[in-house]
Amino acid sequence: MSPSKLDSTASFGPEEASVSCSRSENGSADSLSLFHSEKAVEELLQQTPVAGMDEHLMEFSEALRTVAKALRRAAEGKASAQAEAAEWKRRYELERTRNIQMERKARMAERLSAEKKGGIDCGRVKNSDSQSMLQNESNEHSEKICMKNGIWSHEVLYDRESDSNSNTDLNKMTNKASFKLSWWCNGENGDQHKHDIVSFEKGDITTAERSSKQISLKWESDPQTVLILTKPNSVSVQILCIQMVRWLKEKKKLNVYVEPRVRTELLAESSNFNYVQTWKDDSEITHLHMNIDLVITLGGDGTVLWAASMFKGPVPPIVPFSLGSLGFMTPFHSEHFKECLDSVLRGPISITLRHRLLCRVVRDAAKNEYETEEPFLVLNEVTIDRGISSYLTNLECYCDNSFVTCVQGDGLILSTTSGSTAYSLAAGGSMVHPQVPGILFTPICPHSLSFRPLILPEHVTVRIAVPFNSRSPAWASFDGKDRKLLAAGDALLCSMAPWPVPTACQVDSTNDFLRSIHDGLHWNLRKTQSFDGPREI
């Protein structure tokens, strides 16, 4: 900057400075313009002082700093209020769901008592009652039904089925197999359910130590329908699929569903596979959970992710067979598929409940945080990165009502514990047992040596916002797919989804997890120290 230009800038009088300040307040009130103005003043002040510099310029810069701080406080207060409102809405929905369940139980008890007194036909009453309950479920999409074992039953994201389809789905659900989950430890079964975490009696608080308990699935009625999902473009997978479909139909007398692509391949192999069922369009996928008892995946972890993404609500138990290059969720081997499936169909089996994240994008133009785009369910992680931009990602992070940090780097990973061995691990995150409920908060190449990963509790809602002073937008991807642009003012809300993904275990969840990191990552593998070296006496 030339001295003459500096002198002309410094020669502002009180009137000119006040006019400039009023224009800034009236015409350029957003934080971005204030940021650039403040930056320009700081550069000016760093120059060598020139004789005649007016003190009003110093006062003007201090006023700009004060206004910028006030705007930042207002933005943080607004985010805190929105997060608090979202939390209260979530609590209201949970309380409403509990009241609906209690009302239904009371109606059921009244009908049963009336049946005993009046001698009403039992079968007719139960049938009419179940039909009325299912009718209410299809009409009231916001109602959530939770069974005693804690797995959500029949709610689906954006499930807008018509009345004509509801009758068809009702007939399908009558043939769906039922099962029961129990928590056990060291071979001993217990009656304790997942939600009985803490007891309070006579002033003493006792935890249930649920982390030490394994989950067992026992069929209450025989499975009738199986869905097989395969990895595409694999000859070995196609051969195994043909053998498995034929065995399930001829030996186990099960109804078999496959993808339309797989059904075409089977019919090209032999016309005898015309008994294999599939769906015609994507709208039918929404109702798959109503009549599928078991899902079998042939591939790697990517096939398991694809299977989980097909179900926007409750997920049937998944039996994953390992036919990929590297798998942490595929404990079963294809060579013994008959013995494995026979054991699973007979039950009981140990399962792992893998938590999913429910992610919603809130645009800057939205009136409130409930005006969101279609939500995403992720089993591994949601990644917010800088995309093709050469600038650092600038993200403001909030946990419920608390400000966490401002991320400056390549991006951020919000991962489930099942995804702790995926992208989060490569970015420096910790490996976590998949049944530990929590959200992993892992930065990607942060521009700070003190920025270490976090593990947040399962009940929080994480809010990632792109501030208005960010140099570039950010990009969000969900399990490596469905990339979404996050412009300045947009935000991403992430919370734990109520529908976990139950995957069958070969032994139990802990044994399978430890074996997967040993075999897949060669975790802590080294030569044993020689015993013939120096020793302590």
UniProtKB/TrEMBL annotation:
Stretches with biased composition (Polar residues): 1-11, 19-30
Region annotated Disordered, chain positions: 1-30
Stated family: Belongs to the NAD kinase family.
Record's catalysed reaction(s): NAD(+) + ATP = ADP + NADP(+) + H(+)
Protein name in UniProt: NAD(+) kinase
Coiled-coil ranges per UniProt: 71-98
One of the GO biological process terms: NAD+ metabolic process
GO molecular function: ATP binding; NAD+ kinase activity
Alphabetical list of Pfam families matching this protein: NAD_kinase, NAD_kinase_C
Record key words, sorted: ATP-binding, Coiled coil, Kinase, NAD, NADP, Nucleotide-binding, Transferase
Origin: domain of life: Eukaryota
EC annotation from Swiss-Prot or TrEMBL: 2.7.1.23
